[in-house]
């Protein structure tokens, strides 16, 4: 029972409502009845829940089994050490201006070749040359599985005919039957992973594919190509710098300047030597890529559990909606 008491007369004439213990008990009873009713609805519909969940579970098993295995190949790389910066840094204060004209970095700010190499790896130009050189488009854009018995890639023949090496996919303009480098790069970015540890400086380079052999080959090719690209860039820069420095030696008569110019040439000659001698110019392979024997995805058990959870939740929601809809309409 509710007692209403008027407060002492005042300007606002405020009223206070006192809720009795009986009302609180009735409210608690209502909550208990609601929970009991909810449980009764679920219990009465248990066979519907079991049936819906079973359908979802069976469907998830078929779906999970239909997904092809995807393998991952990974290599651990370390930045190659360079002794060039130490010698060049000593010349920075003496001959920085002319060296800058020659395109020589005297070590005033340390060049992070690892970061530069990673950005080149991610660039459109590098990918275009990489894809053309190694002819990866069929394996990248048309593969749909892997025949483990014959060690061959299974292609989607609605897209690509491996016998004729012909693209036959149907697409809307401006796309063409053969995928463009823009399309291919988007797909390659999805399967390529480059992780650079700020603490250790180590770099993890990995790719994924239906074929574990293809995934390994791609990692090996990427490491080889980026080392080659960086080697060629530094070699061309050093050769151009040496040519400029030699031209300056020919026109100067000041002995001190000639001495410094020869020192600069010596440092650039070291760059050329490193480029000729080092096979692993930017990245040294610490742990090479392997042909994986264990799939990386899909996680079939996780897919089944997710489908089962969705089946249970969906069936309960449907039962409750039907129950409360009927109660409002007095079904």
Question: What is the strand and helix layout of this fold?
Answer:
Elements: E1 3-6, E2 15-18, H1 21-44, H2 46-66, E3 71-79, H3 84-89, H4 92-102, H5 113-122, H6 124-134, H7 137-142, E4 143-147, E5 152-155, E6 160-161, E7 166-167, H8 181-191, E8 192-196, E9 203-209, H9 212-251, H10 255-277, E10 283-287, H11 300-329
Antiparallel strand pairs: 1-2, 3-9, 3-10, 4-5, 6-7, 8-9
Helix pairs in contact: 2-11, 9-10
Describe the structure.
The chain has 331 residues and is of the alpha+beta class. It folds into two domains: 74 residues, no CATH class; 217 residues, no CATH class. It contains eleven helices and ten strands. Strand 8 and strand 9 form a beta hairpin. Helix 2 runs antiparallel to helix 11 and helix 9 packs antiparallel against helix 10. The longest helix has 40 residues. The chain is elongated, with a radius of gyration of 35 Å. The two termini are 34 Å apart. The N terminus is likely disordered.
């Amino acid at each position: 029972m509710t007692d209403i008491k008027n407060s002492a007369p005042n300007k606002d004439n405020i009223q206070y409502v006192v809720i009795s213990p009986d009302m609180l008990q009735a409210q608690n009873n209502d909550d208990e009845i609601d929970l009991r009713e909810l449980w009764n609805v679920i219990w009465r519909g248990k066979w519907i829940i079991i049936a819906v969940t079973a359908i979802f579970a069976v469907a998830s098993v078929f779906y999970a089994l239909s997904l092809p295995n995807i393998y991952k190949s990974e290599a651990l790389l370390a930045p190659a050490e360079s002794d060039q910066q130490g010698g060049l840094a000593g010349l920075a204060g003496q001959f920085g201006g002319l060296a800058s004209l020659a395109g020589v970095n005297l070590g005033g700010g340390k060049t992070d070749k690892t970061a530069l190499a990673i950005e080149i790896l991610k660039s459109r130009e590098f990918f275009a040359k990489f894809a053309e050189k190694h002819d990866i488009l069929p394996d990248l854009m048309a593969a749909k599985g892997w025949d483990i018995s014959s060690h061959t890639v299974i292609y989607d023949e609605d897209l690509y005919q491996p016998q004729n090496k012909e693209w036959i996919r149907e697409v809307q303009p401006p796309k063409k039957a053969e995928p463009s480098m823009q399309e291919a790069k988007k797909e390659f970015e999805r399967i390529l992973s480059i992780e650079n540890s700020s603490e250790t400086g180590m770099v993890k380079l990995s790719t994924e594919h239906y074929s574990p052999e293809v995934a390994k080959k791609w990692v090996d090719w990427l490491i080889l190509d980026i080392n080659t690209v960086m080697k060629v860039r530094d070699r061309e820069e050093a050769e151009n710098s040496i040519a400029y420095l030699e031209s300056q030696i020919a026109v100067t008569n000041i002995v001190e300047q000639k001495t410094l110019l020869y020192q600069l040439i010596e440092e650039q000659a070291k760059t050329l030597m490193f480029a000729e001698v080092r096979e692993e110019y930017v990245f040294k392979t610490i742990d090479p890529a392997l042909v994986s024997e264990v799939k990386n995805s899909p996680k079939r058990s996780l897919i089944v559990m997710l489908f089962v959870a969705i089946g249970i939740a969906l069936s309960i929601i449907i039962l409750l909606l039907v129950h409360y809809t009927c109660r409002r309409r007095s079904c």
